């Protein structure tokens, strides 16, 4: 009887260590998503000379990470920039870029900032001469994350000219 009770307690304790989110262990693809337009990172507000407009993500969204951002002054530039992205993410980036009201004295830039399992939640922008550099703010990835599809993250930022 004691042995049976001990085994039951052990099983209960071990089962409490797991988690059940109702997914049955299957990964789901939430599809493209973005931060709210107009939101900016804590590093990018005020006197820093830049603000984060959006981080747009898509599973297997294509693209190549480039630290140097691309100026997006018009629709043709946006079309050229999104050419390497899959159709869904490209459309989302194009729509977000068109929705931005660029203030006088600023310019809109875009960059593919990450091809990782876990997308960044913010970016940091710096200048190197005339180049605008956009880097993801890296957070420690959870060791329990199963990477079934790489997530492409595109940043749109406003930068003072």
TrEMBL record:
The ranges of region (Disordered) come to: 19-52
This protein's UniProt keywords = Signal
Please, which domain of life does this record's source organism belong to? Bacteria
The secretion signal range is: 1-18
Q: From start to end residue, where is composition biased (Low complexity)?
A: 29-43
- What is the name listed in the Swiss-Prot or TrEMBL entry for this protein? Lipoprotein
Q: Which organism is it from?
A: Nocardioides lianchengensis
């Amino acid at each position: 009887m004691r042995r049976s009770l001990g085994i039951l307690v052990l099983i209960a304790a071990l089962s409490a260590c797991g988690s059940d989110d109702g997914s049955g262990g299957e990964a789901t693809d939430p599809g493209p998503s973005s931060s709210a337009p107009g939101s900016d990172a804590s590093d990018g507000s005020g006197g820093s000379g830049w603000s984060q407009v959006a981080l747009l993500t898509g599973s297997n969204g294509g693209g190549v990470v480039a630290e140097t951002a691309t100026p997006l002054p018009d629709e043709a530039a946006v079309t050229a920039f999104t050419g390497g992205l899959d159709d869904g993410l490209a459309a989302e980036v194009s729509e977000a870029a068109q929705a931005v009201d660029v203030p006088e004295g600023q310019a809109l830039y875009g960059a593919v900032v990450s091809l990782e399992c876990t997308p960044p939640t913010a970016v940091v922008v710096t200048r190197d001469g005339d180049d605008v550099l956009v880097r993801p703010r890296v957070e420690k990835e959870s060791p329990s994350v199963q990477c079934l599809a790489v997530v492409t993250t595109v940043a749109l930022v406003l930068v003072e000219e």
